[in-house]
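Intended use. Records like the one below are meant for learning the mapping from a protein sequence to its folded structure. Do not use them to infer anything beyond what is encoded.
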Amino acid sequence: MLGYAVARAEAMPFAASSFDAVTANQCWLYFDAARTVAEARRVVGPGGLLSTSHFSWLPDADPVARATEALVLRYSPGWTGARWDGAVTLHPPWAGPELSYIGGFVYDEAIPFTPESWRGRIRACRGVGASLSEAEVAVFDHDHADLLTAMVGDHFTVLHRIDARVLRFTS
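Structure written out for the chain above:
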């Protein structure tokens, strides 16, 4: 039995009907949804489950998230993850008729951070770490540290929306 495999979600190296479920946490938006749904259907077979979940800060509701996002946009103006309105659809359009909604949840939580841990979370953001050069990330991180020094103390929270859904393949 494999411990893990490195592969594209759209082309998994597993036999048909190998699993009961496929899960995707914090990554679904990076996939070609139509191809990934078809591939998930193949590896789980009829009646199999697909679960997706996300952990997203809320810039419209949290001042630290709002200020941080504005800084990210200064360095990475083309970042497509900005200005998220917080809307979550439990049966998303990409699910189509082949997936039925089984259950899920959406809730908001104030997540504790230190300046260092929030800076790490933001360096991992695709608008920073995946978009900027190493030198640009270093300059961004310095400016982010200055921003946090002006805004927060040693411990603070950032409001996040946490969501998950479980869908079943109907055929």
